[in-house]
Design brief:
single chain; alpha+beta; 3-stranded mixed beta sheet
Length: 309
């Protein structure tokens, strides 16, 4: 079993966008007969995400909330915005809050809803936040890169933390363990505009919306998104809108959409070439050179897109 825990924004966030559409979240409606999930408040806590905070600091605060929770999800507490909506793009814990919205609208625990609406219909049988102990021997080892460039194996406690031990929070933006085959089924569903093996998860128009750049060109503050390539951001995907600008930029085709994970994982969907690529590795911290190399191996060093692009 390859460890996909850190593929949060590549996998879980896309699941969330699908769930938001299925639930009517985009239109601001809830499904008929839905019962709100029980709240698990722990006071009038207000979490302030200061713009200067690192992702690690934000995650630390979220972990503190999770440890205080009596249940498994966010309570009905207030969470301050990083900035005025539409002012800039920032990688954040917003997708974890999205998961709580899914719970409120569906009346179901987030993990159970994801399994019913996406994982089971796509026959992604090995994928989940909660994994049985019998699968642990299949879990790929994970490594951390040291200052001298060597790789050291992560501790068993670190590797077990997300899927093989008790947790307080089922995160919307991370935490799934999966396999290469399961992940590929998810990618093929997106390539096929929402359908796989006769099962429809999303409408073609929804996939098109998700894979279209939604950022206003006036938004110049984009954090490290600009390092992903010549493009913008859809609904939980980076979207390529132009050819690679220089040899240092990762190769790819206009119209491709993708995301990556903290432990250097990557998946992308390339409609122009009718192709899905899933690249699973276990290297921490993030190593973008691996993505440059795998893309160069797939496309070639001088690739700018299909003939005629």
């Amino acid at each position: 079993m390859s460890d996909c825990r850190r593929n949060g924004r590549a996998f879980v966030a896309v699941l969330l966008t699908a769930l938001a559409v299925l639930l009517g979240l985009v239109a601001g409606t809830s499904p008929a007969g839905a019962t709100p999930a029980p709240a698990t408040p722990f006071g009038s806590h207000v979490l302030i995400f200061d713009p200067s905070m690192s992702q690690a600091d934000i995650q630390s605060q979220l972990d503190q909330i999770a440890n205080q929770q009596l249940g498994n999800q966010f309570g009905d507490d207030r969470y301050a915005l990083l900035f005025e909506p539409g002012a800039e793009w920032r990688y954040s814990a917003a997708v974890d809050v999205q998961a709580r919205l899914v719970e409120k609208l569906s009346g179901m625990p987030f993990e159970a809803y994801v399994r019913r609406q996406i994982l089971d219909p796509l026959r992604m049988r090995d994928t989940g936040w909660t994994q049985p102990e019998s699968r642990y021997p299949r879990l790929a080892a994970a490594y951390v890169s040291t200052a001298d460039g060597k790789l050291e194996r992560k501790s068993e406690a670190d590797v077990r933390a997300f899927n093989f031990s008790d947790r307080r929070l089922t995160m919307g933006g991370a935490g799934l363990a999966s396999t290469l085959d399961d992940y590929m089924r998810f990618g093929r569903m997106l390539l096929n505009r929402g359908t796989l093996d006769g099962v429809r998860i999303l409408k073609p128009s929804t996939v098109k919306l998700m894979s279209t750049d939604q950022l206003d060109p006036a938004i110049s503050e984009r954090s490290w998104l600009v390092g992903k390539g010549n493009g913008g951001f859809g609904f939980d995907f980076f979207v390529r809108t132009g050819q690679p600008k220089d040899p240092a930029e990762n190769r790819g085709s206009v119209g491709e959409f993708f995301w990556d994970g903290a432990w250097s994982t990557l998946f992308w969907v390339d409609p122009a070439n009718d192709m899905v690529v899933v690249f699973l590795t276990q290297k921490d911290p993030f190593d973008g050179t691996l993505h440059h190399d795998i893309r160069q191996a797939v496309y070639g060093a001088d690739y700018l897109g299909p003939k005629g692009d």
